[in-house]
Design a protein that fits this description.
The chain is of the alpha+beta class. Among the domains are: 106 residues, Alpha-Beta Plaits (2-Layer Sandwich), CATH 3.30.70.2750; 254 residues, no CATH class. The strands form two sheets. Strands 1, 2, 6, 7 and 8 form a five-stranded antiparallel sheet that branches. A three-stranded antiparallel sheet has the order 3-5-4. It is flat, with a radius of gyration of 38 Å.
Length: 620
């Protein structure tokens, strides 16, 4: 449900403004709004400068926390505001130290990756190290060709032999990456021509890694191995220095971050306060039940100097009031489904309780199997064990458990346990959806009719509460026409007494012009759309029947494979696939029936979220 809000005005002497804002932040209930004053209040330059200063310091703190790999955690700063300049300077020093460590480690990691690539190249020709070369005073060229370059390698070899025949030797090895390592040994007289040929062929030479003291890659191999062995120790030294710095400053940084965030929140609130030379005036929204406690709190803190007055306790007419949802604990997990859409406008209806009732019911009718329901319950239980209270995963586990319970209940009603195996354990269907598909279709459409009629009732109530009497009556007439039409059809099909057909058909004809008079010609389109929405609930029957048939086919595989063991394996796999389909398809279509057909009758999005001034914490 949407919490009823009240607008309050707080006024007092200008020197007490900061203290009042701090008290309101401790209270954590007031959603600030600009006072409705005719004059424009000029921006406070000092506040803007202070905000820029705090944001710069906050960036230093955030960078330090990131570089030091400090997990997000709430903290309370121990330094009073008077120590802020010293804290800012210390935060800047910590940030520079942390960034220096980060850059040093990144450089070492990059160097190690480069040397590892060189090492593989060297190892391909390591057998040449220490051997007497054909041209000791010649030159070696080192090339790496891309993967799949065998043809280019052959062409390069032929070009070299044609250019400097007898004065060049080409060695090549395939690397683990698929690339080709090529070593070209040339005499001193042929080196220039080889270099020109490589340049003309647009083949870049592999340079020797810096810092090894030689340009000859083969001679650099011992130095490369030594450097690779030394890098982990240097990285470990940096890690130890980072860990020591983290132990020294992590708690202080988290506290400073909380303090700075709190100050920024106060500055945001300060920007919405009208402060004259001697007085200040602020306005905001809070739950109506919290008005009296807030008055008592401010009275106890400031006495008669600060005045609190409720200026609006709207029950549904305040278009600019923020929206706060408060549902019973049993319904609260389903807010994860309704919050995928924008918040409802203040004064309208929160759909969460209705989703909490109908979503598991629709899911259970579509899945409707004791075995699959128990499997889903196991999944929901595992999710609950791995989740923390208040998280989205915990809410999802509770929604899944509600859907599993619904599937088990309807499975007992349908007499289904992994499809047709229910009769083996004594399940007797109260409603056999396998043998009565038309009755199942009628049940699905009847469920849709109830759901759409409820949506029209909610639409009429919402419009009436917002003062839209004509729209409310139009929704009521549409509802009546749907009931009259359904009753007339049931009478024509002799489900109800045939004598009811004529009076209800006449009632439809009488209500039609009334509906057009209330809502215009567009009411005709909306009425036809409502009938279409009711019929779209036939998807409940279609998905439920499909799930049942797949389970029946899985059971028949046991005797159709020739071997019982093979049949059981295939049946289990088929049931597993059907279970996965039974999780996703009912979920998607149950959500669609709510978001499109049901919400389309009454849901009015666009509400502003209730964000009271409070203390910052890591999850905010």
């Amino acid at each position: 449900m949407i919490v009823r809000m009240a607008r309050v005005r707080i006024a007092g002497p200008r020197p007490r403004l900061d203290a009042v804002l701090a008290e309101l932040q401790d209270a954590g209930v007031l959603h600030f709004d600009r006072p409705r004053l005719p004059e424009v209040v000029p921006a406070d330059g000092a506040v803007a400068r202070q905000r820029r200063h705090l944001e710069r310091c906050l960036r230093d703190v955030a960078t330090s926390l990131e570089r030091l790999q400090v997990p997000a955690a709430p903290g309370v700063v121990s330094d009073p505001p008077a120590a802020l300049p010293r804290a800012v300077r210390r935060a800047r020093r910590v940030r520079r130290h942390a960034e220096r460590l980060h850059l040093s480690q990144a450089a070492l990691e990059d160097e190690r990756m480069l040397l590892l690539r060189y090492r593989e190249f060297f190892q391909a020709f390591e057998s040449l190290v220490g051997q007497e070369l054909t041209w000791p005073d010649g030159q070696a060229f080192y090339v790496v060709l891309r993967a799949g370059a065998e043809n280019a390698l052959g062409a390069l070899t032929q070009s070299l032999q044609a250019t400097v025949s007898g004065e060049v030797e080409v060695l090549h090895r395939e690397l683990s990456t698929g690339e080709w390592a090529v070593l070209i040994l040339a005499s001193s007289g042929a080196a220039v021509k080889v270099a020109e040929l490589l340049s003309a062929s647009r083949i870049d030479e592999l340079p020797a890694p810096p810092g090894l003291g030689t340009s000859n890659l083969l001679r650099a191999l011992p130095g490369l191995k030594a450097r690779l062995a030394a890098i982990p120790a240097e990285i470990a030294t940096i890690d130890a220095e980072r860990a020591a710095l983290r132990r020294d400053v992590s708690g202080w940084l988290c506290g400073l971050q909380a303090f700075l965030r709190d100050r920024l929140l106060l500055l945001d609130a300060r920007a919405r306060v009208h402060a004259a030379q001697h007085l200040f005036l602020l306005e905001g929204w809070l739950p109506a039940a919290d008005v009296a406690p807030l008055e008592r709190r401010l009275q106890a803190a400031f006495g008669p100097e600060v005045v609190v007055a409720a200026i609006g306790k709207e029950q549904g007419a305040a278009a600019d009031a923020p929206v706060a949802l408060h549902n019973p604990a049993i319904f609260r997990p389903f807010e994860m489904l309704t919050r995928t859409l924008p918040l409802p406008r203040y004064g309208t209806i929160d759909p969460t309780p209705f989703v909490a009732i109908f979503f598991p019911a629709f899911f259970g009718v579509m899945l409707g199997d004791v075995g699959y329901g128990l499997m889903l319950a196991i999944v929901a239980g595992l999710l609950r064990l791995k989740s923390r209270p208040g998280t989205m995963l915990r809410s999802g586990s509770m929604v899944a458990m509600a859907c599993a319970s619904s599937a088990v209940v309807f499975g007992i009603l349908f007499g289904e346990l992994f499809g047709s195996l229910g009769h083996l354990v004594g399940l007797r269907p109260i409603f056999n959806r396998e043998e009565a598909p038309m009755s199942f279709l009628g049940l699905a459409i009847a469920i849709g009719g109830v759901h759409i009629l409820l949506g029209l009732v909610l639409a009429s109530v919402s419009a009436w509460r917002r003062g839209r009497r004509r729209e409310a009556m139009g929704r009521g007439v549409t509802l009546a026409m749907l009931v009259f039409t359904a009753t007339a059809l049931l009478a024509a099909l002799r489900v109800l007494p045939p004598g009811l057909f004529t009076p209800f058909a006449v009632a439809v004809l009488v209500a039609f012009p009334v509906l057009v008079a209330l809502e215009g010609v567009v009411a005709v389109i909306e009425l036809l759309s409502a009938f279409g929405h009711v019929l779209s609930y036939a998807r409940i029957m279609a998905l439920g029947t499909a799930s049942l048939m797949l389970a029946v086919v899985a059971n028949q595989l046991v005797g159709a494979m020739g071997s019982v063991l093979v049949g059981v394996v295939f049946a289990l796999l088929f049931h597993l696939v059907n279970f996965a389909i039974g999780l996703f398809s009912p979920t998607i279509h149950a959500l669609r029936l709510h978001y499109v057909e049901f919400f389309g009758q009454f849901f009015s999005p666009g509400g502003a979220e209730y964000r009271p001034l409070g203390h910052w914490h890591a999850s905010s």
